[in-house]
Amino acid sequence: MLLSSRQKLAVFRYCLAICLPLLICCQANAYPNVTKPNLVQIFTKTIADVKKLKDSDTGKALQLLNSAKENLDKLSLVNQLTFYKYQADIYADLSRFQLAKDVATFGLDLAKKLKKPNVLISELSYIRGFAIESLGNFKLASEDYLNGLDVAQSLNDQQFIAQGLINMGAIYYQTNRYKLSLMVLNDALKIANNLKDEDLQGYINTELGSLYSYLGELDQSLKFYRTAYQHYSNIGKDSYALNSLANMAANYQSNRHYGQAIDVYKEIIDKLKGKDDNAMYYNVYMGLSWSFLRQKKSDPETAYQYLLIAEQYLGDVERHSAKLSFLIDKSYVLEGLQRFDDALDSLAQAENLFTIKQKQENNFNYISILGLKAKISRSLGHYETAYKTLSEYVERYITYLKAEQISAVQEVRLRYESEQSELQKKSLKKEGSDQALELLQAETKNRNQQLYFMVIALAVLIFAWLLYKLVKGQRRLLITSRTDVLTGLVNRRRLLQVGKSLCVNAQKQQTELSLLMIDLDFFKKVNDDFGHKQGDIVLQTLAQLGNEMFRKNDVFARFGGEEFVVLLPNTSKEQAINVADRLCKKMAAQTWQHNSKSIPSITLSIGVATNKKFTGTSTDSLDFEQLIKQADDLLYQAKALGRNKVCA
Question: How many CB atoms lie within 10 A of CB 477?
Answer without folding.
Answer: 11
